[in-house]
Design brief:
Shape: elongated
Helix content: 10-25%
Number of helices: 9
Distance between the termini: 64 Å
Number of strands: 29
Amino acid sequence: MPRRPRTLAVILAGGKGSRLGPLTQRRAKPALPFAGVYRLIDFPLTNCVHSRLSDVWVVEQFQPHALNEHLLNGRPWDLDRNQGGLRIMPPFTGAHGEGFAEGNADALWRHRELLAEFAPDELVVLSADHVERVDLRDVLDAHRERRASVTLVTTPMPRAEASRFGVAVVGDDGRVRDFAYKPEEPPGDGDTSTVTTEVFVYDAPRLLATLDRLHDAVARARGDDAHLGDFGHHLLPALVDDGAAHAFAHDGYWRDVGTVESYWQGHMDLLGERPALRLDDPAWPVRTAGVLRMPAHVAAGARVDDALLAPGATVRGTVERAVLGPGVIVEPGAIVRDSVLLHDVVVRRGARVERAVLDDAVEVGAEGVVGEGGGALAVVGRGVRLGAGERVEAGAQRDAGDGADDGAQGAHGAHGLATARPR
Protein backbone atom coordinates (compact mmCIF):
# COMPACT_ATOMS: atom_id res chain seq x y z
CA MET A 1 0.00 0.00 0.00
CA PRO A 2 1.53 3.36 -1.02
CA ARG A 3 2.50 5.73 1.76
CA ARG A 4 0.11 8.62 2.31
CA PRO A 5 1.81 11.97 1.56
CA ARG A 6 2.76 14.02 4.60
CA THR A 7 1.08 17.42 4.29
CA LEU A 8 1.72 20.59 6.24
CA ALA A 9 -0.34 23.78 5.98
CA VAL A 10 1.33 27.14 6.60
CA ILE A 11 -0.82 30.25 7.06
CA LEU A 12 1.06 33.49 6.51
CA ALA A 13 -0.35 35.93 9.07
CA GLY A 14 2.38 38.51 9.50
CA GLY A 15 1.07 41.19 7.16
CA LYS A 16 0.78 44.81 8.27
CA GLY A 17 -2.05 45.73 5.91
CA SER A 18 -1.01 49.34 5.30
CA ARG A 19 -3.62 49.79 2.53
CA LEU A 20 -6.36 49.42 5.14
CA GLY A 21 -5.35 52.67 6.79
CA PRO A 22 -6.55 53.14 10.39
CA LEU A 23 -8.08 49.64 10.51
CA THR A 24 -4.66 48.00 10.80
CA GLN A 25 -2.70 50.61 12.71
CA ARG A 26 -3.01 48.63 15.95
CA ARG A 27 -3.67 45.07 14.80
CA ALA A 28 -2.36 42.56 12.31
CA LYS A 29 -4.54 42.32 9.23
CA PRO A 30 -5.45 38.64 9.91
CA ALA A 31 -6.96 39.72 13.26
CA LEU A 32 -9.29 42.24 11.60
CA PRO A 33 -12.96 41.45 12.32
CA PHE A 34 -15.18 40.36 9.46
CA ALA A 35 -18.95 39.82 9.25
CA GLY A 36 -19.43 40.88 12.85
CA VAL A 37 -18.31 37.75 14.66
CA TYR A 38 -15.34 36.43 12.67
CA ARG A 39 -11.72 37.42 12.10
CA LEU A 40 -9.99 37.14 8.73
CA ILE A 41 -7.73 34.32 9.88
CA ASP A 42 -10.82 32.20 10.59
CA PHE A 43 -11.28 31.58 6.86
CA PRO A 44 -7.96 29.83 6.05
CA LEU A 45 -8.15 27.95 9.36
CA THR A 46 -11.68 26.78 8.54
CA ASN A 47 -10.60 25.70 5.06
CA CYS A 48 -7.73 23.69 6.54
CA VAL A 49 -9.90 21.94 9.13
CA HIS A 50 -12.72 21.06 6.73
CA SER A 51 -10.08 19.81 4.27
CA ARG A 52 -8.80 17.40 6.97
CA LEU A 53 -5.43 19.09 7.38
CA SER A 54 -4.41 18.61 10.98
CA ASP A 55 -0.90 20.12 10.97
CA VAL A 56 -1.23 23.89 10.64
CA TRP A 57 1.48 26.47 11.31
CA VAL A 58 0.72 30.19 11.60
CA VAL A 59 3.62 32.52 10.73
CA GLU A 60 3.32 35.81 12.61
CA GLN A 61 5.18 39.10 12.62
CA PHE A 62 3.33 42.43 12.84
CA GLN A 63 1.23 43.08 16.00
CA PRO A 64 0.71 39.41 16.97
CA HIS A 65 -0.89 39.91 20.40
CA ALA A 66 -4.57 40.15 19.45
CA LEU A 67 -4.07 37.36 16.92
CA ASN A 68 -2.59 35.05 19.55
CA GLU A 69 -5.44 35.74 21.97
CA HIS A 70 -7.92 34.91 19.24
CA LEU A 71 -6.20 31.67 18.20
CA LEU A 72 -6.59 30.12 21.69
CA ASN A 73 -3.99 27.44 20.92
CA GLY A 74 -6.18 26.20 18.08
CA ARG A 75 -9.11 25.09 20.22
CA PRO A 76 -11.96 26.57 18.12
CA TRP A 77 -10.66 24.62 15.10
CA ASP A 78 -9.94 21.35 16.95
CA LEU A 79 -6.22 21.97 16.50
CA ASP A 80 -5.20 21.95 20.20
CA ARG A 81 -3.37 18.62 20.25
CA ASN A 82 -0.49 16.97 22.04
CA GLN A 83 1.07 16.09 18.67
CA GLY A 84 0.53 18.14 15.56
CA GLY A 85 -2.28 20.66 15.43
CA LEU A 86 -1.67 24.40 15.56
CA ARG A 87 1.85 25.81 15.88
CA ILE A 88 2.67 29.51 16.16
CA MET A 89 5.78 30.63 14.25
CA PRO A 90 7.03 34.05 15.47
CA PRO A 91 10.15 35.85 14.25
CA PHE A 92 13.28 34.72 16.08
CA THR A 93 16.93 35.50 16.74
CA GLY A 94 19.94 33.35 17.57
CA ALA A 95 19.69 30.90 14.68
CA HIS A 96 20.13 30.77 10.91
CA GLY A 97 17.33 32.77 9.27
CA GLU A 98 16.90 35.09 12.26
CA GLY A 99 15.16 38.44 11.98
CA PHE A 100 12.03 39.84 10.41
CA ALA A 101 10.83 38.54 7.07
CA GLU A 102 10.80 40.86 4.07
CA GLY A 103 7.88 39.26 2.26
CA ASN A 104 6.05 35.93 2.23
CA ALA A 105 8.67 33.95 0.31
CA ASP A 106 11.32 35.31 2.64
CA ALA A 107 9.21 34.13 5.59
CA LEU A 108 9.28 30.57 4.25
CA TRP A 109 13.04 30.74 3.75
CA ARG A 110 13.60 31.96 7.33
CA HIS A 111 11.62 28.99 8.70
CA ARG A 112 13.08 26.48 6.25
CA GLU A 113 15.08 24.57 8.88
CA LEU A 114 11.93 23.84 10.88
CA LEU A 115 10.11 22.97 7.67
CA ALA A 116 12.87 20.55 6.71
CA GLU A 117 12.77 19.02 10.18
CA PHE A 118 9.03 18.37 9.82
CA ALA A 119 9.82 16.80 6.41
CA PRO A 120 6.51 17.27 4.59
CA ASP A 121 5.98 15.93 1.11
CA GLU A 122 3.57 18.76 0.34
CA LEU A 123 3.35 22.26 1.72
CA VAL A 124 0.02 24.09 1.50
CA VAL A 125 0.57 27.84 1.88
CA LEU A 126 -2.35 30.17 2.49
CA SER A 127 -2.75 33.88 3.01
CA ALA A 128 -4.58 35.00 6.15
CA ASP A 129 -6.16 38.11 4.67
CA HIS A 130 -8.52 36.75 2.03
CA VAL A 131 -12.11 35.58 2.34
CA GLU A 132 -12.79 32.39 0.46
CA ARG A 133 -14.10 28.87 0.66
CA VAL A 134 -11.91 26.24 -0.97
CA ASP A 135 -11.69 22.49 -0.42
CA LEU A 136 -7.96 21.95 -0.31
CA ARG A 137 -8.39 18.22 -0.87
CA ASP A 138 -9.37 18.94 -4.47
CA VAL A 139 -6.30 21.10 -4.93
CA LEU A 140 -4.04 18.43 -3.43
CA ASP A 141 -5.53 15.73 -5.67
CA ALA A 142 -4.84 17.84 -8.77
CA HIS A 143 -1.32 18.66 -7.54
CA ARG A 144 -0.46 14.98 -7.07
CA GLU A 145 -1.98 13.90 -10.36
CA ARG A 146 0.10 16.43 -12.30
CA ARG A 147 3.27 15.86 -10.23
CA ALA A 148 3.56 19.63 -10.05
CA SER A 149 6.35 21.55 -8.35
CA VAL A 150 3.72 24.13 -7.39
CA THR A 151 -0.01 24.41 -7.91
CA LEU A 152 -1.44 27.92 -7.93
CA VAL A 153 -5.10 28.32 -7.02
CA THR A 154 -6.38 30.90 -9.49
CA THR A 155 -9.52 32.87 -10.19
CA PRO A 156 -10.64 35.16 -13.04
CA MET A 157 -10.64 38.90 -12.44
CA PRO A 158 -11.40 41.97 -14.55
CA ARG A 159 -8.17 42.92 -16.25
CA ALA A 160 -8.47 46.50 -15.05
CA GLU A 161 -8.26 45.31 -11.42
CA ALA A 162 -5.58 42.63 -11.80
CA SER A 163 -2.50 44.78 -11.33
CA ARG A 164 -2.68 44.34 -7.53
CA PHE A 165 -2.13 40.58 -7.85
CA GLY A 166 0.06 37.89 -9.30
CA VAL A 167 -1.17 37.18 -12.83
CA ALA A 168 -0.74 33.78 -14.47
CA VAL A 169 -0.88 32.83 -18.13
CA VAL A 170 -2.32 29.30 -18.18
CA GLY A 171 -2.25 26.89 -21.11
CA ASP A 172 -5.07 24.58 -22.13
CA ASP A 173 -3.35 21.74 -20.25
CA GLY A 174 -3.40 23.74 -16.98
CA ARG A 175 0.32 24.42 -17.00
CA VAL A 176 1.37 27.96 -16.06
CA ARG A 177 3.24 29.32 -19.08
CA ASP A 178 4.12 32.72 -17.67
CA PHE A 179 3.74 34.71 -14.47
CA ALA A 180 3.79 38.44 -13.76
CA TYR A 181 3.71 39.94 -10.29
CA LYS A 182 1.55 43.04 -9.93
CA PRO A 183 2.14 44.10 -13.55
CA GLU A 184 1.13 47.54 -14.76
CA GLU A 185 -0.32 45.93 -17.89
CA PRO A 186 -1.74 42.55 -16.81
CA PRO A 187 -1.81 39.81 -19.45
CA GLY A 188 -5.16 38.20 -20.07
CA ASP A 189 -7.86 37.10 -22.42
CA GLY A 190 -9.94 40.04 -23.52
CA ASP A 191 -11.09 41.95 -20.44
CA THR A 192 -10.23 39.12 -18.02
CA SER A 193 -6.99 38.09 -16.32
CA THR A 194 -6.21 34.99 -14.27
CA VAL A 195 -4.87 35.91 -10.82
CA THR A 196 -3.55 33.85 -7.93
CA THR A 197 -5.66 33.66 -4.78
CA GLU A 198 -2.44 33.28 -2.75
CA VAL A 199 -3.24 29.66 -2.00
CA PHE A 200 -0.44 27.37 -3.18
CA VAL A 201 0.54 23.73 -2.90
CA TYR A 202 4.27 23.09 -3.19
CA ASP A 203 6.31 19.97 -3.61
CA ALA A 204 8.09 20.57 -0.32
CA PRO A 205 11.57 19.16 -1.12
CA ARG A 206 11.68 21.08 -4.41
CA LEU A 207 10.46 24.23 -2.64
CA LEU A 208 13.17 24.10 0.02
CA ALA A 209 15.88 23.44 -2.57
CA THR A 210 14.62 26.32 -4.71
CA LEU A 211 14.49 28.71 -1.75
CA ASP A 212 18.12 27.96 -0.90
CA ARG A 213 19.24 28.29 -4.51
CA LEU A 214 17.44 31.60 -4.95
CA HIS A 215 18.67 33.02 -1.65
CA ASP A 216 22.25 32.17 -2.55
CA ALA A 217 21.85 33.93 -5.88
CA VAL A 218 20.28 37.02 -4.28
CA ALA A 219 22.98 37.05 -1.58
CA ARG A 220 25.71 37.09 -4.22
CA ALA A 221 24.04 40.05 -5.88
CA ARG A 222 22.99 42.04 -2.82
CA GLY A 223 25.21 40.93 0.04
CA ASP A 224 23.88 41.42 3.57
CA ASP A 225 20.64 42.94 2.25
CA ALA A 226 19.59 39.66 0.66
CA HIS A 227 15.97 38.60 1.02
CA LEU A 228 13.53 36.78 -1.24
CA GLY A 229 10.65 39.22 -0.96
CA ASP A 230 7.19 38.01 -1.93
CA PHE A 231 6.30 34.87 -3.88
CA GLY A 232 6.11 36.81 -7.09
CA HIS A 233 9.55 38.38 -6.93
CA HIS A 234 11.76 35.30 -7.34
CA LEU A 235 10.11 32.05 -6.21
CA LEU A 236 7.13 31.67 -8.53
CA PRO A 237 8.96 32.94 -11.64
CA ALA A 238 11.70 30.36 -11.00
CA LEU A 239 9.22 27.49 -10.58
CA VAL A 240 7.26 28.57 -13.65
CA ASP A 241 10.49 28.68 -15.67
CA ASP A 242 11.24 25.12 -14.55
CA GLY A 243 8.07 24.03 -16.37
CA ALA A 244 6.21 22.14 -13.63
CA ALA A 245 3.91 24.87 -12.29
CA HIS A 246 0.20 24.24 -12.73
CA ALA A 247 -3.00 26.16 -12.04
CA PHE A 248 -6.11 25.00 -10.21
CA ALA A 249 -9.12 27.04 -11.31
CA HIS A 250 -11.17 28.07 -8.27
CA ASP A 251 -14.82 28.62 -9.16
CA GLY A 252 -16.12 29.59 -5.72
CA TYR A 253 -16.17 32.83 -3.76
CA TRP A 254 -12.89 34.63 -3.22
CA ARG A 255 -12.16 38.20 -2.26
CA ASP A 256 -8.96 39.94 -1.32
CA VAL A 257 -9.85 42.38 1.46
CA GLY A 258 -6.56 44.23 1.53
CA THR A 259 -8.03 47.67 0.82
CA VAL A 260 -10.77 49.64 2.55
CA GLU A 261 -12.96 49.43 -0.54
CA SER A 262 -12.60 45.65 -0.91
CA TYR A 263 -13.08 45.12 2.84
CA TRP A 264 -16.32 47.11 2.72
CA GLN A 265 -17.45 45.33 -0.46
CA GLY A 266 -16.78 41.95 1.16
CA HIS A 267 -19.34 42.86 3.81
CA MET A 268 -21.85 44.07 1.24
CA ASP A 269 -21.45 40.65 -0.45
CA LEU A 270 -23.10 39.13 2.63
CA LEU A 271 -26.32 41.10 2.16
CA GLY A 272 -29.27 40.94 -0.22
CA GLU A 273 -31.75 38.22 -1.10
CA ARG A 274 -29.06 36.10 -2.75
CA PRO A 275 -25.73 36.99 -1.09
CA ALA A 276 -22.55 36.26 -2.99
CA LEU A 277 -21.14 34.55 0.11
CA ARG A 278 -23.09 32.50 2.64
CA LEU A 279 -21.52 31.84 6.00
CA ASP A 280 -24.23 29.53 7.34
CA ASP A 281 -23.61 26.43 5.21
CA PRO A 282 -23.94 23.52 7.68
CA ALA A 283 -21.52 21.49 5.56
CA TRP A 284 -18.81 24.15 5.84
CA PRO A 285 -19.39 26.32 8.94
CA VAL A 286 -16.84 29.06 9.53
CA ARG A 287 -15.23 28.35 12.88
CA THR A 288 -14.13 31.06 15.27
CA ALA A 289 -13.59 31.86 18.91
CA GLY A 290 -17.06 32.43 20.35
CA VAL A 291 -18.57 35.85 21.05
CA LEU A 292 -20.08 35.63 24.53
CA ARG A 293 -22.79 38.28 24.46
CA MET A 294 -26.55 38.53 24.69
CA PRO A 295 -28.56 38.20 21.46
CA ALA A 296 -28.98 41.34 19.37
CA HIS A 297 -31.92 43.57 20.33
CA VAL A 298 -34.11 45.58 17.95
CA ALA A 299 -36.24 48.00 19.97
CA ALA A 300 -39.83 49.01 19.27
CA GLY A 301 -39.92 51.73 16.63
CA ALA A 302 -36.53 50.80 15.18
CA ARG A 303 -36.13 49.97 11.52
CA VAL A 304 -33.74 47.32 10.20
CA ASP A 305 -33.60 46.55 6.48
CA ASP A 306 -31.15 44.02 4.98
CA ALA A 307 -28.56 44.00 7.75
CA LEU A 308 -26.48 41.59 9.84
CA LEU A 309 -26.54 42.21 13.60
CA ALA A 310 -23.94 40.53 15.79
CA PRO A 311 -24.66 39.42 19.38
CA GLY A 312 -24.95 42.31 21.81
CA ALA A 313 -25.96 44.86 19.17
CA THR A 314 -28.84 47.20 20.08
CA VAL A 315 -30.79 49.11 17.43
CA ARG A 316 -33.22 51.89 18.36
CA GLY A 317 -32.77 53.90 15.18
CA THR A 318 -32.57 52.99 11.49
CA VAL A 319 -30.14 50.48 9.95
CA GLU A 320 -30.15 49.78 6.20
CA ARG A 321 -27.70 47.56 4.30
CA ALA A 322 -25.14 47.39 7.07
CA VAL A 323 -23.15 44.95 9.19
CA LEU A 324 -23.04 45.69 12.92
CA GLY A 325 -20.46 44.04 15.15
CA PRO A 326 -20.91 42.88 18.74
CA GLY A 327 -22.06 45.53 21.20
CA VAL A 328 -22.88 48.20 18.60
CA ILE A 329 -25.52 50.71 19.73
CA VAL A 330 -27.64 52.78 17.33
CA GLU A 331 -29.67 55.29 19.33
CA PRO A 332 -33.16 56.65 18.46
CA GLY A 333 -33.18 58.92 15.42
CA ALA A 334 -29.74 57.74 14.28
CA ILE A 335 -29.29 56.33 10.76
CA VAL A 336 -26.68 53.78 9.66
CA ARG A 337 -26.70 52.98 5.96
CA ASP A 338 -24.34 51.08 3.62
CA SER A 339 -21.75 50.79 6.39
CA VAL A 340 -19.65 48.41 8.49
CA LEU A 341 -19.47 49.03 12.23
CA LEU A 342 -17.03 46.96 14.26
CA HIS A 343 -17.18 46.03 17.97
CA ASP A 344 -18.81 48.45 20.45
CA VAL A 345 -19.40 51.39 18.13
CA VAL A 346 -21.99 53.89 19.44
CA VAL A 347 -24.02 56.08 17.09
CA ARG A 348 -25.75 58.73 19.20
CA ARG A 349 -29.19 60.29 18.71
CA GLY A 350 -29.78 61.96 15.38
CA ALA A 351 -26.37 61.02 13.97
CA ARG A 352 -25.94 59.69 10.44
CA VAL A 353 -23.38 57.17 9.16
CA GLU A 354 -23.38 56.40 5.40
CA ARG A 355 -20.86 54.49 3.28
CA ALA A 356 -18.38 54.23 6.12
CA VAL A 357 -16.26 51.76 8.08
CA LEU A 358 -16.03 52.46 11.80
CA ASP A 359 -13.46 50.58 13.86
CA ASP A 360 -13.87 49.28 17.42
CA ALA A 361 -15.23 51.61 20.11
CA VAL A 362 -15.81 54.60 17.84
CA GLU A 363 -18.46 57.00 19.14
CA VAL A 364 -20.36 59.30 16.79
CA GLY A 365 -21.78 62.20 18.75
CA ALA A 366 -25.39 63.36 18.61
CA GLU A 367 -26.29 64.89 15.22
CA GLY A 368 -22.85 63.96 13.93
CA VAL A 369 -22.27 62.87 10.31
CA VAL A 370 -19.81 60.31 8.96
CA GLY A 371 -19.64 59.75 5.20
CA GLU A 372 -22.18 60.48 2.52
CA GLY A 373 -24.51 58.42 0.37
CA GLY A 374 -22.91 57.92 -3.04
CA GLY A 375 -19.58 59.32 -1.86
CA ALA A 376 -16.20 57.70 -1.31
CA LEU A 377 -15.88 55.55 1.79
CA ALA A 378 -15.14 57.26 5.09
CA VAL A 379 -13.03 55.45 7.71
CA VAL A 380 -12.81 56.18 11.43
CA GLY A 381 -10.09 54.45 13.45
CA ARG A 382 -10.35 52.59 16.71
CA GLY A 383 -11.55 54.48 19.77
CA VAL A 384 -12.10 57.85 18.08
CA ARG A 385 -14.90 59.84 19.72
CA LEU A 386 -16.54 62.44 17.53
CA GLY A 387 -18.23 65.31 19.31
CA ALA A 388 -21.86 66.39 18.92
CA GLY A 389 -22.46 67.68 15.42
CA GLU A 390 -18.95 66.78 14.23
CA ARG A 391 -18.49 65.65 10.62
CA VAL A 392 -16.19 63.24 8.83
CA GLU A 393 -16.50 63.90 5.13
CA ALA A 394 -16.86 61.25 2.42
CA GLY A 395 -13.48 59.77 1.55
CA ALA A 396 -11.81 61.00 4.75
CA GLN A 397 -9.86 58.79 7.14
CA ARG A 398 -9.91 59.86 10.79
CA ASP A 399 -7.63 58.16 13.27
CA ALA A 400 -6.68 58.79 16.89
CA GLY A 401 -4.46 61.86 17.04
CA ASP A 402 -6.29 63.61 14.19
CA GLY A 403 -8.10 65.96 16.54
CA ALA A 404 -10.82 63.69 17.93
CA ASP A 405 -10.88 62.20 21.42
CA ASP A 406 -9.03 58.87 21.55
CA GLY A 407 -10.78 56.20 23.58
CA ALA A 408 -8.90 53.34 21.98
CA GLN A 409 -8.17 51.55 25.23
CA GLY A 410 -11.64 52.00 26.64
CA ALA A 411 -13.52 49.09 25.13
CA HIS A 412 -11.03 46.63 23.72
CA GLY A 413 -7.90 46.91 25.82
CA ALA A 414 -4.43 47.07 24.40
CA HIS A 415 -4.89 44.17 21.99
CA GLY A 416 -8.34 44.86 20.59
CA LEU A 417 -10.29 42.12 22.40
CA ALA A 418 -13.61 42.92 23.99
CA THR A 419 -13.85 43.93 27.62
CA ALA A 420 -16.71 45.46 29.53
CA ARG A 421 -17.64 48.99 28.48
CA PRO A 422 -19.88 51.20 30.65
CA ARG A 423 -22.95 52.68 28.97
